[in-house]
Amino acid sequence: MAVDRRHLLQHLERAAKAYGRDLVLPPGKLAPQAAPAPAKPDAPAVDAPKPGRSEPREPTAGHAHPPPPAPAAPTAPEPAPVPTQADPREAALEQLRREVLACTRCKLHTGRRHAVPGEGNPRARVMFIGEAPGEREDQSGRPFVGPAGQLLDQIITGGMGLQRKDVFIANINKCRPPGNREPEPDEVAACLPFLRTQVELVAPEVIVCLGRVAAQNLLGRTEAASKLRGLDLDYHGVPVVVTWHPAYLLREPDRKRETWIDIKRVNRLLGNPEDPRQKRPDAPPDSGQSP
Ligand code: SF4
User: What pTM did the predictor assign?
Assistant: First the structure.
């Protein structure tokens, strides 16, 4: 499954142009291969943006600027602060979000109330990928907001010691299939480039596939989730952990114990304690139950 790097670069270039600045690629597996610096072939292709960095534009050489006028009075107001430039990664994700909201690439657009692009921390270390929006998500335009979403929140907080805002959550398909059926192959093929771009932009350290449909379509595999769980998998070098979809866990709560095992593995891959309660000396002892 090849990553659509040209599509991703188009996102970045459009976003950079919209913010009136040069293209600066985020760190990730895309940049060294797909973004050679044309003017300086020996220079590194990636200039990792620093969080919160403001980058006012330098004056252009050769264009003389008139000297600033002298203050009219000692009590003159301070000049307005220069607006902070948006992070190109966030700008590219926003550009992608807008494209998803207007997308008509497949027939699922005809029945949707809202497309659900996905949301979360643009610099998330872990990315959760589900199948497609359900009814609640279609109503709200947000991923995993129904009972399954509440369970996912519990997994994130109780199992990982994180908050939803710390991770990135997306789906294979961004529009709800009618009757909550599985997305059809042509619908997946039409939508998957959006997800691939999101993965490249966020550049997570670990991907968690929630359920069979997410795992099969991201990885190009055909096995059931029960066979893919526990395997050492990766998506273009990013470790992938397959676990049960939260909606399935609501129907089969006994499987939560297996999800807890999978989440411990995610924590290990992130270099975190297997059990986030280890950070809290007042936490109750591990019951062995899933979060
Ligand atoms: S499911 Fe994806 S490809 Fe199909 S219309 Fe929605 S956003 Fe576009």
Answer: 0.73
